[in-house]
Amino acid sequence: MRDADMGVADDAQGGDPAKSSPRERLISAATELLAQSDGKPVSTRQITDLAGVTAPTLYHHFRDKDGLMEAVVARGFEEFVQREGMIERSASPIKDVQRLWDIHVHFGLTHVQLYTLMFGNAGPGRRPVLVEEAEHLLERELGRAAAAGLLSVAPAQAARAVLAANIGVTLMLLADEPDQPLSADDIAGLPLSVQTRDAVLRSVVSDPSVLDDPSRGTPSGQPSYVAAAIALNATLESSHPDQLSGTEMRLFLEWLHRLSNASGGGNGASGEALPPSTPGGR
Amino acid sequence: MRDADMGVADDAQGGDPAKSSPRERLISAATELLAQSDGKPVSTRQITDLAGVTAPTLYHHFRDKDGLMEAVVARGFEEFVQREGMIERSASPIKDVQRLWDIHVHFGLTHVQLYTLMFGNAGPGRRPVLVEEAEHLLERELGRAAAAGLLSVAPAQAARAVLAANIGVTLMLLADEPDQPLSADDIAGLPLSVQTRDAVLRSVVSDPSVLDDPSRGTPSGQPSYVAAAIALNATLESSHPDQLSGTEMRLFLEWLHRLSNASGGGNGASGEALPPSTPGGR
DNA sequence: AGCTCTTGTATAGCGTTGCTATATCGCCTA
DNA sequence: TAGGCGATATAGCAACGCTATACAAGAGCT
């Protein structure tokens, strides 16, 4: 066991670094260890050793290990939301909800262990703390939206729907994406996140045009090869598409695949590979 | 209810009742124990005791405890889907997707421990087996929908969005609802599930009127030819392309090039932008 | 037959886990 | 000074996932 760093409490909270309470040291120790040990579980002994306390101290302040983890998640999410600048609200509550969604995804992807741990222990009556927190924030913003007459359903109902989809998308991205570090701006570019976010949001908003992406205009601004695809499509459809040879199929498939992926998602992400050149014909 | 009491009991699984393989007994024992012990974890010793084998046998057939759990979940979900009558498809692929959604939610609510356990162990590279299974089923049905020209995005993309929301809703219901038994029909009545399901579905469908919500207009305003292109794409995907011949590819390219020039105007863009290797596909 | 290789199961036990029964320390109140 | 009380330490339990090793039975080969 290492006795090197007894003064563990290098807490960036800005309070009392040297002699913070054991409770605080336990939370920050768990946070730190959880962030370092990439994915794998962290034992209570590691936590208590790093915090400079012994085992019973943990169980005096928290009911059990899960209780400590809940506290860690709650604090982590709060700090995350605050640091991300969610206190200041924009003019549009809907945009704030969108930002809240992105923050949620970002938090999940940057706190994998914590995030999955919460939903792994979710039981019939055990609502994860993160759910409570996020639902509260969403309800607040959606309450503002409802007050402005922007919602078509009750704020609580809308919050549940948005949060459910938000969690699902986060978990999906978390399982899919390799362990690459991505910034907050990258989140707003993930097609799955943006697409699902606006889909659910559109279902609870009274006027869907609020969500329309200003950067990406009407679909009339399709790139030129869309027109070519249409022409080709029509040509092939007039004849028999089943009679294409295998090679033609393969190539056409790949080309169409890109096309449908690029234009179908409705993602207004910047730096897209598709130039918004206006087609002449059609 | 299966063979429970006896240590080495017969298995009604269909093949050899008297001497079913230890592997099978391990899976069914784990399934049963997991269903009985309401939410709390099940130890390997319990499983091996009930299965009538000793510890190393488990690790001979499965990599570790999670491996066994994955097998349990995979089998459970397969059986569930089959029993629910998902083999027969209706006339509308969209309706089948909706039914698949409901089945998913039903499975999650009736297999709490298994469901939460899967997502608790989900890491950066670890895709839960249930995700693979469900995504596969969804992709198949959505592929049919795309072939019928009903989708506005690629089937794979749509499947990911639907599945993400599906998982999120299931987890939310699972944490919220008390441990009451509810039938499959009850699932279709849960507002959160239905609302979110159709919201996401509406975002990937070319014609939202397919879903039973005439009040909302078409926000996406997707041009019809994009749906046609995706439909053609999905149709071609069902067949298997042969080997790639350079001559034919070049011929096909030139053909495509002419067509794009004739109808659209953007000329050379499609020609050189097509490497023969597919980067992301499987 | 004899031999080895593979597959499957059992014996016994290692190291670690979450957690606790009990005791001690220090502080506040009276 | 005594007593209560919250907080921390000492020591250790029972259970956990997992494994090193050995034994048993069949398959294939010489």
What does this 3D model show about the protein?
The structure is a homodimer of 282-residue chains. Chain A is mostly helical. Helix content of chain A is 60%, strand content 0%. Chain A is built from 12 helices and no strands. Chain A is elongated, with a radius of gyration of 24 Å. The interface between A and B is large, with 94 and 90 residues. Chain A binds a DNA duplex (30 and 30 nucleotides) through α3.
Brief overview:
2 copies of one chain form a homodimer. By secondary structure, chain A is mainly alpha-helical. Helix content of chain A is 60%, strand content 0%.
Largest interface: A-B, 94 and 90 residues
Tally of individual helices of chain A: 12
> Roughly how many Å is the radius of gyration of chain A?
24 Å
Strand content bin of chain A? under 5%
Overall number of strands of chain A: 0
The amount of helix of chain A comes to 55-70%
Large-scale geometry of chain A: elongated
For the record, give the distance between the C-alpha atoms at the N and C termini of chain A, rounded to a whole number: 74 Å
Mean pLDDT rating of chain A: 72
Structural category of chain A: mainly alpha
Largest sheet of chain A: none
Q: Return the string of H and E elements of chain A.
A: HHHHHHHHHHHH
Q: Identify low-pLDDT runs of chain A.
A: 1-18, 214-247, 256-282
Oligomer: homodimer
SSE layout and pairing:
2 copies of one chain form a homodimer.
Chain A: H1 22-36, H2 44-51, H3 55-61, H4 65-83, H5 93-110, H6 112-120, H7 129-147, H8 155-176, H9 184-187, H10 191-204, H11 224-238, H12 246-264
The structure holds a DNA duplex (30 and 30 nucleotides).
